[in-house]
TrEMBL record:
Keywords: Cell cycle, DNA damage, DNA replication inhibitor, Nucleus
Molecular function GO terms recorded: DNA binding
Protein name stated in the entry: Chromosome segregation in meiosis protein
Gene label: MPUL0D04060
Predominant localisation class: nucleus
GO BP, sorted A to Z: DNA damage response; DNA replication checkpoint signaling; replication fork arrest; replication fork processing
InterPro entries: Csm3, TIPIN/Csm3/Swi3
Region of interest (Disordered), residue spans: 166-253
Signal peptide interval: none
């Protein structure tokens, strides 16, 4: 009776088949060093070396055997086919390491359907690096140091950048030779490109706004003996030079020559001084 009622097989145990897991690709898997895209970058130079070696053998064979034009063309085509087979085998092995149980066709389909922003940025970075490398090889741009930042100049050496830090730490304070050398470096480190001089912390910026700042730039010929003047005469000349410098109020007054200044009588400032004292100035 039970067998007749079990004609549909409802009481029999179900036989579960084998469940196949669909492989999924993620950004972590693509950027993994052992299985992802970095492995292609690390091993691709070996493939290029094998291709160049194969091309060199083909060229040597054509020159050595003096093949005809048709035979040389056939040899070149055979070499290119061999190179394409090497490239195909290279990517087959990589896909097998990425998805061991998937076929090469399925692996290509999974890779094509995967879209992510980090992958696009990674691809754009590789393209930009390759373009930069080609520009450097052709001399279009100049290669910058690895640790340098954009805008750094070559004339800003380590001494100019780190000399103030050493002085703050106490190094070089009591060493007159080191101080003299740092001053010489600061005077000789100026170059034609002064737009980037603010990057150097050891060099004083001179913009021509302060009185007497350009006197140090005048170069003196050491071959000619210097004439030593008396101290009193030098003091009088220094006071005379400071009197000749224009003040803040001189720019509002009309220009007066030196001869006219000699003819102007001296004014009495007692009245003005009394007025200023009354005003509390």
């Amino acid at each position: 009776m039970d067998q007749e009622n079990d004609a549909l097989g409802l009481d029999q145990p179900l036989k579960l088949g084998r469940v196949l897991k669909i492989p999924k690709i993620t950004d972590d898997l693509l950027f993994e060093n052992n299985r992802g895209l970095p492995q292609i970058r690390n091993n691709y130079p070996k493939l290029l070396k094998a291709i160049r070696k194969n091309d060199a053998k083909c060229a040597e064979r054509v020159l050595k055997q003096r093949l005809s034009k048709l035979a040389a063309h056939q040899a070149k085509v055979a070499t290119e086919v061999d190179n394409l087979q090497k490239v195909l085998l290279f990517y087959q092995l990589w896909c097998h390491g990425l998805f061991p149980r998937a076929t090469f066709k399925d692996c290509l389909r999974i890779l094509r359907n995967h879209k992510s922003l980090p992958l696009k940025e990674y691809r754009r970075g590789l393209i930009n690096n390759e373009i930069r490398r080609l520009k450097i090889e052709k001399g279009i741009i100049v290669e910058e140091p690895e640790n340098g930042e954009p805008g750094d100049d070559d004339h800003d050496d380590e001494e100019d950048l780190y000399a103030p830090a050493n002085i703050e730490n106490g190094e070089g304070r009591n060493d007159p030779g080191a101080q003299q050398q740092s001053m010489e470096n600061s005077n000789t480190a100026d170059s034609d490109d002064e737009d980037w001089g603010f990057l150097s912390t050891n060099r004083l910026r001179r913009n021509g706004l302060f009185i007497g700042e350009d006197e140090d730039d005048d170069q003196v010929d050491d071959s000619t003996p210097a004439h030593i003047e008396p101290a009193g005469q030098r003091r009088e000349e220094a006071t005379a030079e400071t009197d000749d410098f224009p003040g803040d109020d001189d720019f509002d007054e009309p220009f007066i020559s030196a001869q006219e200044k000699e003819n102007v009588p001296e004014e009495d400032y007692d009245e003005e001084l009394a007025i200023m004292r009354e005003m509390g100035m």
